Amino acid sequence: DDVVMMDGEVIASVSKAKKSDALLIVPLAHRLENAYDKSVEIAKLRGEEEDFRGKIAIQGDKDIDFAILQRVMYTCSHSGFEEISLAVLEKS
User: 55: how many CB neighbours lie within 10 A of its CB?
Assistant: First the structure.
């Protein structure tokens, strides 16, 4: 409930991100930029003619704080992942 995760790994604390006025979540940005660079390199090695297009899915439950969602989305876009999909999980 208090973490931002990527690929099953804790990347940032939600409570720390809430305390900051900045939209960018720096640890998440670093991790996303590394993933972007690797994806671009893989696309080049495959000989794909089109440039890599950053697509990402954000998953969270329906109670996620909008301020955090906004920061995560901003960080994704800032890091080259501009095609954002949202997957919302409802608790039953």
Answer: 12
Pairing relationship of beta strands 3-6 and 83-89 according to DSSP bridges: unpaired
pLDDT, one tens digit for every residue, the chain (92 residues): 789 999 999 999 998 888 888 999 999 999 999 999 998 888 888 887 677 788 999 998 888 889 999 999 999 999 999 999 998 776 65
Helical (H) or strand (E) element with 83: strand 83-89
Residue with tokens 């990402």: 56
Tokens of 61: 């439950």
3-state SS, residue 23: coil
How far, in Å, CA of 83 to CA of 80, rounded?
9
* Tokens standing for residue 40: 């671009």
